[in-house]
Amino acid sequence: MADATLNTPARSITEARGTKPKRALSGRNIMIYGTLIVFSLYYLLPLWVMVMTSLKGMPEIRMGNIFAPPVEITFEPWVKAWSQACTGLNCDGLSRGFWNSVQILIPSVILSIVVASVNGYALTFWKFKGSDIFFTILIFGAFIPYQVMLYPIVILLREMGLYGSLWGLVLVHTIFGMPILTLLFRNYFSTIPEELFKAARVDGAGFWAIYAKILMPMSLPIFVVAIILQVTGIWNDFLFGVVYTRPDLYPMTVQLNNIVNSVQGVKEYNVNMAATLLTGLVPLFIYFVSGKLFVRGIAAGAVKG
């Protein structure tokens, strides 16, 4: 009896059946990871060239071999790109454009996200007569080419006294960001159980109380998605910046264009590369900090229409 008892676990282990674990280096895995590595190298190679070039002096760059790391690292191109490079009549580098971009970015992101989230909230839980038509018209606006609207907006801003100012550009970014953000917020809020809304209404909560105390705490991922989309779009914008502001208020992207396309003096590729990297640091930082929340939010905001 004791022998039978002792042999039972061994017999169970012997007779256990299941799927065999896959080999770590199977042909399928090698093909998948090999493809991913090739594509990663393809996209990282230009970044490698930019970083290496920005750390070299011009004599070393003229020797060729753009893929090689610098023999002697120098940060002078970065300093010049930030504070000394000429962008038209001014020779103060990207620093002026950076602070202009910050002044444009912060109010534009806040206003567009607040307006779009309230729109999505109202269209989901406080539907009114004609709300579907309103939403359709709003989404239709997302597909109108920006170039078609350039001149009418110039006239509108001029009549409002905002043409050539930072606040005029803030208004433009807020308006053009509303359609797609409203769609994302509406789809995300549609995944929240309606019972929560009804229970809050029974408890006496109003429009703003439900929005601030129930929806906002539950909607962090979609707010992160909206922030990333707006930060990337607004920070990288060139067209609106060059059309709706004046030279002393140009954002960083316009200043970068002026540095790279300058026809004065010698073409300094190391300064151009450093200026390009400096311009892209803010969106890259936002992506790296909140990448996981971005994936969660964009997935949740895309499952319902």
TrEMBL record:
Protein name: Carbohydrate ABC transporter permease
Keywords from the named record: Membrane, Transmembrane, Transmembrane helix, Transport
InterPro entries, alphabetized: MetI-like, MetI-like_sf
Tree of life domain: Bacteria
Compartmental location: Cell membrane
UniProt keyword Transmembrane present: yes
CDD domains: TM_PBP2 (cd06261)
Main localization of the protein described in the UniProt heading: membrane
Location of the ABC transmembrane type-1 domain: 98-290
Membrane topology, record value: Multi-pass membrane protein
Record-stated family: Belongs to the binding-protein-dependent transport system permease family.
Keyword Membrane part of the UniProt annotation: yes
Pfam families xref list: BPD_transp_1 (PF00528)
